[in-house]
Amino acid sequence: MYSNSRALIFSLACLPALYALPVSAAKVNAKPGLWEHTVEATGSGPFARIGAGTHRSCITEEQLTMDTQNMPKECDKTEPKISGNTVVWEMNCNMQGMQMKNRYTASYNNTSYQGVMTMDITGPMSMNIERKMSGHWIGPCDKK
User: Which segments of the chain does DSSP mark as H helices, in order?
Assistant: First the structure.
C-alpha cells in the first residue's frame, strides 16, 4: 500500500504544475505578474469529490517558458504545442504499477486563460480527474 500511496501522492502533486500557466520553451500569450486562478475539479475513484477553489500566484517571465526537462524520469512527455493562443501538453507516467495519463489544453489571451486538464490513473488505485481552469491577470506582483 505504501508504494501505491507514494505514486498517488506524486500524481496529485503534479496537478499544480499543470494549471499554473504551464507552457514550453515557446512563450504563451500571457503577462507575467499576479494572477488569480479558479479551478473546478471533478473525478471518479478515491477522490471523486475534489471540489473547486481560487488562489493567486505571482507568475514570473521564466515560468511562462517552463522547461519540461525537469519532469520525473518515469514520465514521457510531449513538448507543449502552441498554435495561435492554444497550448496542448501531454505527459504519461508509469510508476510503481500505476499508469498516469495527463492532457492539458488551454487558450491564453495575454490577461486571461481557460483550460482543461484531464488525468487518468490506472492500477491498484484507479481514478479519473478533470480540472476546468480559468485565470486572469490582476496586475504586477508585490515587490517585497
Answer: 2-13, 15-19
